Amino acid sequence: MKENNLQTPGVYINEINVFAAQNYIIQPDSLAVLDSLAFEMNQFFRAKYLNKEDLVIIQFPVAIDGSTEINTQNKILICPISLEPGKATNSFSGFSLLVMSNFANPLESLKIIQACGDFLNWIAPNGKANNLKTNQAFSIQATAMDMQLQQQIFLMLGCLYKPAILYKIHFKDEDFTNYLQLPNPGEVNQELIKNCLESDINNLLNQFVFEPNHQGSWLHIRYWANKILDIYWKRGFLIGKNAEDAFQVSMDINSTMTAQDLMNGTQILSVRICLKEADWLQISFTRTVSTT
Question: How does pLDDT run across 234-280, given as a tens digit for each residue?
């Protein structure tokens, strides 16, 4: 039987709308879909059971430090997780959604989780989420969970077993190549590729000029920098059998910045690109941001 690898639970980082599980990131647009899903599910249960308070919350069943279970009694938990950590480094277009029913009465939990399945099947009767009002196109499909996979999931989440269902969600990637200064394929040289890439990365950084200099902003910048470099690689401007061989992105307190840099309001993004076989070029983007 194929082993199922599971990453650690995601957490809120500095109170911003980013879920992260090690290298796996759910972007704000995707989180907005989860918010819409939770809202519609709450409306569904209000109508079905005439309850006055929301039952559905987007929440992991453990505290951020993983030490104790959070009190989520009599709630339905929507928990985004990654089951494919090896594919998460440069791919942020999908994740698995664990829906858990946490009610004191086991029979009530089973009844609620069955109703959740009915709702999600209505949202996406053919895999496509046609019945959910959202600006982002995505598909959602049920994933079979045998006993071994259930044990692995709840062990990694650090909580007791709860009746649950698992769905795979895949988002349609946004095509933003029209916004990039990509070189003309007929006039390509290494200096031109470098200049165009520097322009695109600088344009990216300009979008974060008013963002605080903390891990949440760095996650966003690394994400979009990876997206830009991935396009350059797929167009043949960067050399490598795979993306990891063609480019690398670093922006972190442990790699590109020091504590003194943060105190001075200095933000540094480092990009390594391969323009020809076994020849890496490192480009650093340094700017000063607000420390308040």
Answer: 888 999 999 989 999 999 888 999 989 988 889 999 999 999 887 89
pLDDT at 29: 53
Confidence of residue 54 (pLDDT cuts 50, 70, 90): confident
pLDDT at 151: 80
The pTM assigned to this predicted structure is 0.50
Taking 50 as the threshold, does the pLDDT of residue 34 lie above it? yes
Q: Where are the domains of the chain?
A: 11-171, 177-288
State the Cα–Cα distance between residues 277 and 52, nearest whole angstrom: 63
The CATH class of the 177-288 domain is alpha beta
